[in-house]
User: Fold these one by one.
Assistant:
Number 1:
Amino acid sequence: MTQATITMSDLRKRYGTTDVVAGMTLSIGPGVTGLLGPNGAGKTTLMRMLATVLAPTSGDLRLLGLDPADRDERTEMRRRLGYMPQEPGFHRHFTAFEFVDYIAILKEMTDTRERHRDVRRVLELVGLGDVAGQRIRKLSGGMRRRVALAQALLGDPELLVLDEPSAALDPEQRMRFRELASGLGQERIVLVSTHQTEDVAALCQRVIVMHDGRAVFDDTPAQLSALAHGRVWIADQRDPRAQLWWRTAEGHHRHVGDPPPAAQLVEPTIEDGYLLLVGPQAADARVAA
Amino acid sequence: MSTTSITPPPAAAQDAGARQPRPAAMRWALARVEGRRLLMHPLFMLAMVGAAILALGSGNGWKANVGGGADLMDLAGWGFVPASPVIFLVACLAASRARRDAAQDFHRPQPLAPRLRTQAALLSLGWAGLAAAALTAVATVAIAGSDLLLVVDAGRYRLQPWELAQGPLYVVTIAAFGVLAGTWTSHAYPAVIGALILFLPPAPWLSWIVLGDGVPAAFDVSQAGASVGWHLVGLTGLAVLAAAGALARHDRRARIALLAVAGLGATIAGLALGLPPGGVLT
């Protein structure tokens, strides 16, 4: 029986002289795990390695107990994997049904009747049943994202690697996605890369923050919020000592950083904790450390 | 997205991890899809309509049918020549689709081996060959009648099935070169340029590819078809050579090299033995 986990040890991916993923050591089990990080942090590179699209430069990687460096084990792994790429190209002349059906064949589903049934199921699941016959070039950006999500769900995979699945979705569709992903995460490993801290708060049991190719945080969303406990305050005027600030809709200035004495502290969010971890001054602090 | 709870997948999907891979079944499933897309491609349909008009045009005075020779040439394959750049292009576009559309991230993490995809692309050319065979059959019956007797100045000439096989085989060969080009390129424009250079007259090799030494002989019906057998061998060799080149993209096993050698041998044999002594390719 295979181990239902992802394990990686000192995993690296190097392009030229740059380590895009610079020694990740993690173990991820069933449930929804969020991967946060700024642009260029190495999230997509890591996701592509987990999806067996990219080979690591060095380090050890096991997916569901299988070694993707071994050809046979990689093929077996791919049978149990669903991957939604970040910005894929589509076969724009295909209809949504034809495209997902094509991917289903590549997933080794050869029985036409069973395959079509599963294609209809996943298209219904992402709310595209009504537009299954429309060509992809005529679908909106959000609908295309859902086509990409649908193909990842084919065959009910044990491991789902979803790279920015809620990007380009409208608020209602994001809610639907959360409902879908949380249901899937009850029995499977669902790894979600996102910029949406609200999605992480609503969906993930665990959050990993990446920066410069490394994991700089690995805990629960509540703990990520707690990083900013006592470090978020509001004031009527902008405080120059704050690392970050913005003007709220109520006309106050919301600050993140080291508060002055007697500051009016407020409850932090995941975003506050995240900004403290990866914001510009946080980077300076890490270099100094 | 659906508001309903997550529905269980079909039994076959649930057994995904336990499925035994069946390469032949996967190859055919993909070949059926690719074949259907090839036949339904607007450019391919246009090419077939063009070939039909060319073949059937003599009855309407659309072509100079000197001594019945043009009919014979068209039915023996020449009728597909104007369509060949398009056939090449459509096959090339299909084979390069994943890279042209930047959709590799959908394809790469799938268990189906890339070599099976190339094999399926080559198998799908059978649909193009069948379409060409059907068109040839209809044109033959329309022009020569069901007894396959062609009336020419020199008398009556009975068409041989081997002669009629040249056209469909030519279509498959051209398409195989399209798959070869598409397997190794990522853009459409080299295919367009290549198609025009390779398959539009007056390319010097075009005559032999289409009709072997039957081109000059077509006007002397007593010699027509004399070396059709060797021409078919040569055409098959070319198709096999192109297929081996395409397969080599993802499959470096010795059997592919053997396939290439066999294709090259058949091509050389067809070329050498299909030509009359001192024959020329014009």
Number 2:
Amino acid sequence: MSEEVKAPKKEKIPRQKMPEQPANERRRNFEEVPYGYTPELAMKEAERCIQCKDPRCKQGCPVEIDIPGFIKHIKEGEFEAAIRNLWEKNSLPAVCGRVCPQEVQCEGLCILGKKDEPVAIGNLERFAADYQREHGKQILPPKADPTGKKVAVVGAGPAGLTVAGDLLLKGHDVHIFEALHGPGGVLLYGIPEFRLPKAIVFQECNFLERMGATIEVNAVIGRSETVDELLERFDAVFLGVGAGLPVFLKIPGEHYIGVYSANEYLTRSNLMKAYEFPVYDTPIVKGKSVATFGGGNVAMDCARTALRLGADHSYIIYRRSMAELPARTAEVHHAEEEGVEFLLLNNPTRFLGDDATGRLTGVEVLKMELGEPDASGRRRPVPIKGSEYTVEIDTAVIAIGSGSNPLLTKSTPGLALNKWGYIVADPKTGKTMKPRVWAGGDIVTGSATVILAMGAGRLASNSIHDYLTYGW
Amino acid sequence: MFEIVERQEMAQGTIISNWIKAPKIAAKAKPGQFVILRANEKGERIPLTMADTDPAKGLINIIYMVVGKSTALFKTLQVGQGYIDVIGPLGQPTHLEKVGKVICVGGGTGIAVLHPITRGLKQIGNFVYSVIGARSKDLLILEDKMKAASDEMMICTDDGTYGHKGFVTDKLKETLEKDKDIKLAVCIGPVPMMKFCCKVTKEFGVKTLVSLNPIMVDGTGMCGCCRVKVEGKMQFACVDGPEFEGHEVDWDELDLRLRSYMVEEKVSYDQFKECHGGGKCSCCS
Ligand SMILES: Cc1cc2nc3c(=O)[nH]c(=O)nc-3n(C[C@H](O)[C@H](O)[C@H](O)COP(=O)(O)OP(=O)(O)OC[C@H]3O[C@@H](n4cnc5c(N)ncnc54)[C@H](O)[C@@H]3O)c2cc1C
Ligand SMILES: Cc1cc2nc3c(=O)[nH]c(=O)nc-3n(C[C@H](O)[C@H](O)[C@H](O)COP(=O)(O)OP(=O)(O)OC[C@H]3O[C@@H](n4cnc5c(N)ncnc54)[C@H](O)[C@@H]3O)c2cc1C
Ligand code: SF4
Ligand code: SF4
Ligand code: FES
């Protein structure tokens, strides 16, 4: 705080906006929305940081990035030093800079936010990573001497990729098993191209391969091989299989053609590139009137994808009000700008369809009002009797959360699961109840965030390294 | 790449058999399980049942009917070429059990899916009746293999060019009337065929297994695309199935959902036929 007082009076720099594609153009294409900072804009934004001695922002970052440190490098134009600083704590800065919910993490605590707008920490992190990718040398961090120990990582999402990166640096042999035909987890199949270009995900995975990791795709552990079989070939196994189970509304009519789970809708569009159909072979129903149910990041991604696939109307149907939307503020804002229509305090009761063709024609919804606060402190939505009405739609996307996929856990004796089917693991070490097996990310916590999955990966890799060095 | 080491055209080129090098899958696969294949970077993920395996040589066998763009593209793949992705084994294996007498009914390419199950049922000591059918003699596949796997085999063709003239359901009914000791029926083929077979077996109170083929994407229970209604409950065919108790399946719902992409499939296939002709242009590789 003292610096603030002592600093010579100078013109206050406003938070630098990231240039982005105009809303009316981008709503019809899949290119990334913000273009990123130029070096000039980044340096100007970096100048806003007052370099707190006891930085609050850092407490808001789950992996404790040295935020004033890397920002100072940017301010001074030392971009390579900035990325090296970031890499010490975060192996996926290009991803986190784009998708972290900064407003409730690092930026939410930035001291400038008290009176003014916080430093754009996420944008700066993204800039440093992008600059390195586009201009930097293909530098590889130094690796410890080979230890001869072998680790299997199951699932190539943020949790698994973090574990792999850390253990490679410590000299261990790492083999990643991924069920889909490409690595990245949700970063590849879930988060759309316009928010996280897939080239970045490929680059990060490619970096791990250059570091010496083996990435085996098309390997569905639990089917192609069991965890017990992996334990015969590897010294340790990390499970980072995510929360890949679709949740349906369980209301009548969910079988109609045009009703998708968010997982299916996004997988078709992102992983299978159905938005380029018929150049790519996988089709998707390109609805004219699309309703997405839910209010999180996943729902925003679906509603914005629907616009890009050509919808005239893309609705978000959510049973609470705007204030309770769990999605990142930036995404809600982008969705509004692009013309997503929010039907708030509405709850679906049944889907309507044409029984001859099997196609969806509408959804019946019930209006809600806010009642008393519930256990989470949010005001509970209560239905208004007799307020049902019909919204005409031809496509519905259900984005109300996801559950634990039992494919791997059911085939692995000795793992303890909680009542929702997530793996029980020590929050400090990631150790499961099964010897030599660690777990982390969404399969332990339920769907959370990229950076929390990476944080869990970091803890687990430290614990695995300790085990490989000193024993269980 | 997963290389094709042997390729055969059957049923006048409408059905293709591939033996593919996939040692890990071959070592694990059990009757009733399937794989998902992709021909190239732009390709769709297509589920196909393993018709056979040769673990010693590390090979799996798929037999598919050419019905649309992706299977037509598969057909262009020759020995020495291959698939960029083969994922498996997926799905639950058939629960093979010695029950005494069984009847196995297969139609069209369903016979390819039925064969390993029939063979398994016979190997563990069941008496096996089988009924196989096709539209016409030229389109009937795997006659010899099915014969070897059965104690008594009947053949049906819609046009009467071979065996009994009529549907497999006729012979199914006849056999169930004749032999009251049959404890289990396994019926695999097009949806209408399975649906009518189940009607027949239900009359006789014979437990019936069917293998469902809803549209799939990942095959690991992640997307929910393959949901089917069985006993009024939502099930995912890729992880809970693909085999289910046939009397409990909501056939009409399955039939409708299989038509989800009829318009798009036609666009895709027409475009393929136009630019491919012989099937060797670069737009698909
Ligand atoms: C559409 C969408 C948008 C999101 N937006 C944001 C956002 O803006 N910001 C944010 O912070 N978070 C966001 N999230 C959440 C975030 O992506 C997840 O919390 C994070 O990816 C979890 O990482 P993970 O490594 O635990 O699992 P995942 O990313 O789910 O990766 C798990 C991997 O394991 C593989 N796998 C599963 N089973 C097996 C098996 N049996 N064998 C082998 N491999 C297997 C899967 O195919 C997958 O690749 C979003 C999620 C979704 C779905
Ligand atoms: C578990 C399982 C096992 C199967 N085993 C066999 C087999 O052994 N031999 C065989 O010939 N066929 C099998 N099928 C069906 C086969 O997958 C489809 O014929 C194939 O996907 C058609 O693709 P296409 O692009 O050539 O045709 P399209 O023109 O795309 O479609 C023709 C029809 O095939 C179905 N279909 C389309 N896409 C898919 C998809 N991704 N998944 C499933 N069905 C789809 C639809 O009903 C569609 O109307 C199986 C299906 C499943 C689910
Ligand atoms: S990783 Fe996320 S929370 Fe941490 S500094 Fe970067 S954007 Fe903020
Ligand atoms: S980002 Fe904000 S809280 Fe962090 S050091 Fe800079 S001014 Fe202080
Ligand atoms: S194919 Fe995706 S859940 Fe079965």
Number 3:
Amino acid sequence: MKPFTYERARTPVEAAAAARAPGARFIAGGTNLLDLMKLQIEAPAHLIDVNGLGLDRIEPTTTGGLRIGALVRNTDLAADARVRRDYGVLSRALLAGATAQLRNKATTAGNLLQRTRCPYFYDTNMACNKRQPGAGCSAIGGVTRQLAVIGTSDACIATHPSDMAVAMRVLDAVVETVRADGTTRGIPMGEFHRLPGATPHIETALEPGEFITAVAVPAPIGGRHFYRKVRDRASYAFALISVAAVLQPNGTGRVALGGMAHKPWRVEGAEAELPRGAKAAMGAILSGARPTPDNAFKVTLAERALAAVLAEAKG
Amino acid sequence: MQAPDLPATRRGLMVATVDSIAMPGAGPGAGLGAARSQGAASPAPGAPPGAHGLAAVAFRVNGQAHSLDLDTRVTLLDALREHLQLTGSKKGCDHGQCGACTVMVDGRRIYSCLTLAIMHQGAEISTIEGLGQPGNLHPMQAAFVRHDGYQCGYCTSGQICAAVAALDEIRAGVPSHVTQDLTAAPRVTAEEIRERMSGNICRCGAYSNIVDAIVEVAGAPA
């Protein structure tokens, strides 16, 4: 690790102000950031420890939903009785990710902000536009089995690795933030993560220093909740593909996909196709996909995973 | 063949070797910070923690209080092993992929390699050394011995800490990926244990014996 200085923030606004310094980064669970710092993919000059800010509660909102503090650990969110009862897709997605040791540390906000696991991002001998803007992308034309099939650009074909974020997307969650001047805003999950375009190093809609205080989920929408994840081993592996779905008894519903794109992939306009079956729905959801020969299987796999979910919902 | 009764331990030999090649004036524990009792320079009074790349932290390990002045980069694992000489927690991958470094912090299992020591001000930390000792083994340690839940033993302390925590988590009602009914209390089954132990890798492949040991301690049929 490169040397860095360290402070413990006392308020969210203080943290946001401190984060405007060059090279400053927030640290919460640290399970992704420290891994990257050991590899010198991340080399912050200053760490702002936000663990003492008390943003670790799950509270009801005035509109019948839940406000999940930024520092709520993945274990606590997955185990919360309200989440298990009303937002099963969120519990299921969290429990499908990582291991108990990591979920005990990893936070709600940190989960959203984790970096891609693209092997070319991790290998500092390879060109990567995320690590070094303008350097090029060694993944394109390389081994792309795990990488994105839709929403890609000529600069980047990385995926977002989170399971939780896919469930948050299907639940229409809103990311709540505060800036150094004390102003706050809510960013809908659909706008929170960006597609890579020409600037894959800019991964979210957050401004420099902007600090996530909570993630709010709207009032429960009922239905049956599914998170089906397909991976290379039965546990502790990132998704090849995943399907988060909330399906209603009349055959309507919502679907978001993980492992397919630079962000959780959801096409609201395609969900009208759900009553017509997986082939029709997935065809609309993945319209415009540009898979490589290595990862074209993901398109088939996603359709079959959705078919399995739809069958289970009927059964 | 009777093992020769050598006065030196492997650990002691390695520490001595490192000492002999260290820079003049740098004793054990120097370099990336030192225990305060070893006389390392403290950060300037009034300076914020970590302002100069060195920070003070105080936590308890296995019930014993420790105050350390550490380079900000020192992981909890390295603080335990290199500064407190608690070498039961092992460094396998150092990237949170193998589980050999598993310890309990404030009652929860974590990977000690993926967290900074200075982030644990006031924490209550338990390591394998705090679970049991030769002659007074924790039931999980005894079960691992009885079931031969290891071969080389390198992953074992992490496996045992994780196993104790996994059973605590089931008792606390924390669901897992394989829990069928999210709204019901999870049960102790071999399937649950395999899923909950997936963050601990055993390259010798002692998994089936590890599951047997944990199932026995849980008092449940396999």
